[in-house]
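We give the entry.
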Amino acid sequence: MLKVAVLVSGGGTNLQAILDAVEAGTITHAQICAVISNNPGAYALERARKKGVEAVCISPKDYETREAFHEALLKKLQSVGAELIVLAGFLVVIPEMLVRAYPNRIINVHPSLIPSFCGTGFYGLKVHEAALSRGVKVTGATVHFVDAGTDTGPIILQKAVEVREGDTPQVLQRRVMEQAEWVILPKAIDLIANGKVTVTDGLAHISQ
């Protein structure tokens, strides 16, 4: 049983999709061992508690240095026995020390088809604003492994979503979440939990 820790900063809609998938049996051989947020007011923590999952706030504001915060985060992940870390709307830059501790064991969902609209500064509504201002007809979401760069790790899954005439960033954000993020993030966790994802030469491969 793969122990999964989910890191979140806000409402936790992606977390809810994961919790629902575990309950429905579409994620197998995995259990959510902890939900950690940098934000004490994150509703995601309440979502976790409702499902009986340990919910913890580790905020950088509670530590004198960024390094101390990073060490506390790593210590907590190790103490709950996390084997896979899922970034589900976690608005904190992941330090290299964490990437080194969990090589190809940290995944992130990004609300675009990488390499479009990704990298430093592209998060939340900013991604959808950029997609609309560029006039793309198709956008989507990507689940990828986290490496030392920003949105540069091996791509595991992608799903395309139609951009419609009259879309606002908020409307597009919701469609991307519903049609892509909430679909491919649980699927990626299931694939990893069942040993179907490998990484060679910087590329992720999925076996049937």
